[in-house]
């Protein structure tokens, strides 16, 4: 009990002592501390506000940067889409351009010959025909009868004489050759202007080709520029000839195309067949250390063989035989005791597969012809098909058609002009190619004899157009309209057209000389023809001209 009363008294005393009303001075600093706290809180609030503003500014900057990046990405995407659209348009434009170019070339190949008879050709040809007076029908007929017809009989007699002698010479050549080791020579064939009856310039020269083949068991494997492998532009029109064994499959095994290791052998071919001494291949007239037939080796072999053959039969003839050109294997000349001479070409050739296309060892050179790439490259000639095509078309033409007459007159004019001003890039083969194109392009009735004047103008206009464009395509190569009756190899019909005037693009001096010679020939045409024409009364000439109108 006393303890409890003591605790209550102690509690009352403690409460009284700690009451704030009894100690007012000690608690006087409380208001001052409150203001300081409030001031600090305001400062803290201001700091927080500034920090908030800074953070808001940073957020705004980030948002602006993000928008700029998004905008830039959008621009890039739009530019990519625009570029893709532009690339698509560019590609589409290129495709359209190529299609137009292909159509233009096809149109040119198929239809450019047809414009030869149109009246507006004079505007296309420029100044070439301005002031040119074409001989009328009567003058041309008189010129043709006086100057050209008289040579037909001479050509026939010369062909008969040369062919008989060539057959005898080749028979002697076979007898002097070793049939087990030398090349086998076949019968000769006549080609060119003498056998197509349009040669007019003297001296007359017969062109004979002589196919030859290797001895057994060898054979020739021919490859042309259009066989599939890529050939440079200067090798178009050429091919190579590989000498192989008849039982050798050069297309089915790659052992001759790939270098096998020393410890590897081909299971299809024994080492005896694949490895041949170089002397054996040289005996087969191949280029050194190769299997490809060498034109120079063929030339030497043929000249030696012809010399031996002539020595065997020379006692039967009363004339001499010699080589007229050292760089041509069969350019021969017969010299009679009277001083007269006859020239002819006996050229060795290789048959392409089973066709009448032939590889020519040496071709008559012209100023327009490019240098042969190498002695293993052989030029292809389509002369047999050209002769056959002219004969085939002649059957469908009117009697006494004027196609050969046009070619003869044009050949005469060009030859006369070249004798006055010097040779040009044009050859008689170019002139014949022009005639072949026009024969295919024009209807048969357009070649009636009374239309000689019009067709001659067509040929001149066509030739002028070709010279202007520097394009004269080979008649057979790339021509899909060759008559099926000829049996022409399809590989050459599907090949790219061969431009015979391509050298004009590379040799501007020769091109300018050729064009100048052609224009000079046009200006001198009337004078050149009148020189060989019998005088015709003016009234008769006018009467014929009225008939033609």
Give a quick precis of the structure:
The chain has 549 residues and is an alpha+beta fold. It is 51% helix and 11% strand.
Give an account of the 3D structure.
Residues 404-477 form the Mab-21-like HhH/H2TH-like domain. The protein is of the alpha+beta class and 549 residues long. It has a domain at 121-247 and 280-534: Beta Polymerase, domain 2 (2-Layer Sandwich), CATH 3.30.460.90. Helix content is 51%, strand content 11%. The chain has 17 helices and ten strands. The protein has helices spanning 2-18, 30-111, 121-124, 137-148, 152-176, 193-196, 271-274, 278-283, 295-313, 383-394, 403-421, 428-441, 452-469, 490-493, 502-506, 508-530, 538-548, and strands spanning 184-185, 189-191, 205-213, 218-224, 238-245, 319-323, 331-336, 341-351, 358-360, 378-381. Strands 1, 2, 3, 4, 5, 6, 7, 8, 9 and 10 form a ten-stranded mixed beta sheet that branches. α5 (152-176) packs across α9 (295-313) and α11 (403-421) runs antiparallel to α12 (428-441). The longest helix has 82 residues, at 30-111. It is elongated and about 185 Å long.
């Amino acid at each position: 009990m006393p303890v409890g009363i003591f605790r209550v008294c102690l509690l009352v005393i403690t409460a009284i002592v700690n009451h704030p009303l009894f100690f007012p001075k000690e608690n006087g600093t409380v208001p001052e501390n409150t203001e300081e706290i409030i001031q600090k809180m305001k400062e803290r609030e201001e700091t927080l506000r500034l920090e908030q503003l800074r953070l808001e500014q940073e957020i705004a900057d980030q948002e602006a940067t993000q928008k700029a990046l998004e905008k830039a990405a959008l621009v890039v995407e739009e530019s990519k889409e625009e570029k893709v659209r532009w690339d698509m348009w560019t590609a589409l434009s290129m495709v359209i351009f190529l299609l137009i170019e292909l159509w233009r070339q096809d149109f040119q190949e198929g239809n450019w010959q047809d414009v030869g008879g149109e009246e507006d050709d004079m505007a296309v040809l420029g100044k070439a025909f301005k002031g040119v007076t074409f001989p009328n029908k009567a003058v041309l007929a008189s010129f043709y009868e006086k100057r050209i017809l008289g040579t037909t009989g001479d050509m026939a007699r010369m062909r008969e004489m040369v062919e008989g002698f060539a057959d005898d010479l080749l028979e002697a050549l076979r007898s002097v050759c070793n049939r087990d080791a030398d090349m086998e020579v076949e019968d000769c064939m006549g080609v060119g202007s003498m056998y197509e009856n349009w040669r007019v310039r003297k001296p007359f020269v017969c062109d004979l080709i002589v196919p030859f083949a290797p001895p057994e068991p060898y054979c020739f494997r021919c490859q042309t520029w259009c066989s599939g492998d890529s050939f440079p532009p200067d090798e178009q029109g050429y091919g190579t000839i590989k000498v192989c064994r008849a039982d050798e499959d050069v297309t089915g095994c790659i052992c001759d195309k790939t270098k096998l290791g020393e410890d590897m052998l081909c299971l299809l071919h024994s080492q005896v067949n694949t490895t041949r001494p170089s002397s054996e291949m040289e005996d087969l007239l191949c280029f050194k250390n190769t299997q490809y037939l060498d034109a120079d080796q063929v030339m030497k072999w043929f000249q030696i063989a012809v010399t031996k053959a002539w020595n065997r039969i020379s006692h039967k003839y009363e004339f001499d035989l010699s080589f007229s050109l050292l760089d041509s294997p069969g350019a021969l000349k017969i010299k009679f005791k009277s001083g007269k001479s006859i020239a002819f070409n006996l050229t060795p050739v290789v048959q392409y597969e089973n066709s009448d296309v032939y590889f020519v060892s040496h071709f008559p050179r012209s100023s327009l012809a490019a240098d042969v790439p190498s002695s293993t490259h052989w030029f292809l000639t389509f002369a047999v098909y050209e002769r056959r095509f002219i004969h085939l078309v002649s059957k469908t033409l009117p009697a006494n058609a004027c196609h050969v007459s046009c070619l003869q007159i044009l050949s005469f004019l060009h030859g006369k002009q070249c004798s006055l001003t010097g040779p040009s890039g044009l050859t008689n083969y170019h002139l014949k190619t022009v005639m072949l194109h026009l024969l295919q392009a024009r209807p048969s009735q357009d070649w009636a004899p009374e239309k000689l004047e019009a067709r001659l103008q067509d040929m001149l206009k066509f030739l002028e157009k070709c010279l202007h464009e520097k394009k004269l395509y080979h008649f057979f190569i790339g021509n899909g309209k060759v008559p099926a009756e000829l049996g022409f190899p399809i590989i050459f019909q599907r090949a790219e057209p061969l431009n015979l005037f391509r050298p004009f693009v590379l040799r501007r001096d020769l091109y300018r000389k050729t064009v100048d010679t052609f224009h000079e020939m046009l200006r001198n045409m009337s004078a050149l023809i009148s020189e060989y024409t019998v005088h015709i009364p003016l009234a008769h000439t006018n009467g014929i001209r009225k008939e033609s109108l």
